[in-house]
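note to self — DONT lose this again. spent like an hour looking for the file last time. sequence + predicted structure for the chain T wanted, 184 res
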Amino acid sequence: MYLIDSKPTPDDRHVCVIWLSRAGFVMGPDKRPVEAESSPASVVAEVAAKHLTARLFSPGRRCLSRLEISEISSLRRGLETWPVMKDVIKYHESIVLATPVFDGRLPGIVTEALTKFGPYDLAGITVLPVITLADSTGEVGDALLTDMREALPGATLTEPLALLGETPEAIEPLLAPRLDDLIK
């Protein structure tokens, strides 16, 4: 991967996958960080990373594409998120946002992470909302879309993808075509 300092050229794509973690990371038996409690959103991030890597960085293709996977989590010490949204806006043309809904709304921690140190103008950025229903309370409705528009002003929101599955095998067939559309 090459260092990128601007938006992509027409042949390259810069995508940031942002997902909500249930409990953050802990040190695993091999002394490497592992997710404390897996979630459907983490599975979406895993599937998206694998699929986008295969599409953006195919063998023999010299490219300047960029793929970033970012976690939002709420730990005892407070909100943790990477990267800072101003960097997402500066370097990426597309965002995949994987999150459950709570009472039919965007979770407060997701809103906080997306708007921290903002407001931001996301004009020119396309957002693919991926709603993980297996760990949600509520459904994809007008309130959720309103919350997303407020948290992501100026962004072009695609039709949300609502997923009930919790495994890569259940998620991949539904997510892959939407990711392909996002990077066309």
